[in-house]
Design goal:
Blueprint lengths: L16 H23 L10 H31 L6 H25 L2 H28 L9 H28 L7 H33 L6 H24 L2 H27 L8 H25 L4 H37 L7 H4 L2 H23 L4 H30 L2
Length: 423
């Protein structure tokens, strides 16, 4: 246990190679997304173009899912006391199935290959099923976490939402790839899958992680107890009621509970920005600023979603997607990786009885600062490309460079860890 963080059981961390494989694979999908943008100048004209569908899944099922599950392998035992059984075996199986599944799904959607779509969906479900089963076993064996932190509860809610988003995604794979008939219209099923993946899985996990990571790494006050107590249940209830309204075509319910979801997302972003203003850091570092940009992107995405609800112009849903996937999640995940990877490397060395170098030696500030600055430039280019499609290849080049650089920086930290571990 850590004296500074008495609720965190650092001695329960799995072998470092378990999460590292996810963290080092995630940027490859971001790099692939940049190359897709570079190759298809018409990709961002609509959310329904084959290239846009491929791009979304390279970000969501590739970059985000790899990074999030890698983080969960660490967070579940440390925060919730839920040790995943056989973590290396679970990590290995999940990692391979998810990587192959995300690649197959993106290729199938981008090139219109039904078999690849179904195969990708099946591989993703297989990998996520293994991970979810192992997580449920770990959570069932864990003692109930003590203390004021709502992170263990909210991790359970996020995993439940992931299971629902996965099931909806599998249905979509069979509808698109095999022509399966359902009582729900295809756009409705797509929206259900997207929002459960966004606010149910991604939003709940980002918040649950932030309850711990923001005060710990950004040196802010803790989130208010009342806020963390009610935010996730309110978000999940709004999501369930919105989904039921969507399914039965209840227009006023869709509007009411959709607005409630936007309010929940906005409240989280505003609360986080408020805590950041009260940081005890004398000079905020690059990950701090990148996380702030991700919260501002989240607020901007809510405006884009409102515009999409009020106007039929195709650019507003695309702009919302750019701000959510690249601005919010890619930005927040990159910021967290720059803190989590060197910290885990330092912790692993310390636990092994090795004199560990300072975390700044494992991953220096300057390369991280420059790469995150490129992330901001790439985000700006993507926003412009939505409005001026001729700029799409430029945005793609910047996105590819951004994620390639992220991979290089994380690899440098891993190499520094290897060197320090040598006798």
């Amino acid at each position: 246990m850590s004296g500074a963080n008495p609720g965190l059981a650092y001695h329960d961390t799995p072998p470092l190679s378990a999460p590292l494989r996810f963290f080092l694979t995630a940027p490859l999908f971001g790099l692939a997304a940049g190359l897709v943008l570079l190759a298809d100048g018409e990709l961002l004209v609509s959310r329904w173009t084959p290239g846009a569908l491929a791009l979304v899944h390279l970000f969501a099922a590739g970059f985000m899912l790899q990074a999030m599950l890698g983080a969960l392998l660490q967070i579940l035992p440390v925060v919730a006391g839920a040790s995943v059984p056989a973590p290396l075996r679970i990590a290995g199986l999940t990692h391979v199935l998810l990587g192959l599944g995300a690649a197959s799904l993106a290729i199938g959607l981008g090139l219109g290959q039904p078999l690849a779509i179904v195969a990708g969906g099946a591989l993703l479900v297989g990998g996520l099923g293994i991970f979810l089963l192992a997580s449920v076993i770990g959570l069932a064996r864990a003692a109930h976490a003590q203390g004021a932190s709502r992170t263990p509860r909210d991790l359970r809610l996020a995993l439940s939402a992931l299971a629902i988003a996965t099931g909806l995604g599998l249905l979509l794979a069979f509808v698109i790839g095999r022509g399966m008939s359902l009582p729900l219209a295809l756009p409705t099923l797509v929206d259900l899958h997207a929002v459960w993946a966004w606010m149910g899985w991604g939003g709940l996990l980002l918040a649950a992680t932030s309850w711990v990571v923001v005060p710990m790494f950004q040196i802010t006050p803790a989130y208010p107890a009342g806020f963390t107590r009610y935010w996730a249940p309110a978000t999940l209830l709004s999501l369930v009621l919105w989904s039921l309204s969507m399914s039965v075509g209840l227009g006023w319910g869709v509007m009411l509970f959709g607005t409630a979801l936007l309010v929940c997302a906005g409240a989280f972003a505003a609360q986080t920005l408020g805590l950041q203003r009260r940081t005890r850091r004398s000079t905020p570092d690059a990950p701090f600023r990148a996380f702030r940009l991700s919260m501002l992107s989240l607020l901007a995405s809510l405006v884009a979603l409102l515009l999409a609800a009020l106007h039929d112009a195709p650019q507003w849903p695309v702009l919302a997607g750019v701000l959510i996937l690249h601005g919010t999640f890619a930005g927040a995940i990159s910021a967290m990786l720059y803190k989590i990877v060197p910290f885990l490397a330092w912790l692993n060395l310390t636990q092994a009885g090795v004199r560990a170098p300072n975390m700044k030696k494992l991953l220096p500030d300057r390369p991280a600062r420059l790469q995150l600055r490129l992330h901001g430039i790439a985000l700006g280019a993507l926003v412009l490309a939505v409005l001026v499609p001729v700029l799409t290849p430029v945005a793609g080049l910047l996105v590819a460079a951004e994620f390639g650089w992220l991979l290089v920086n994380l690899s440098r930290a891993v190499l520094a860890w290897h060197r320090a571990a040598q006798p």
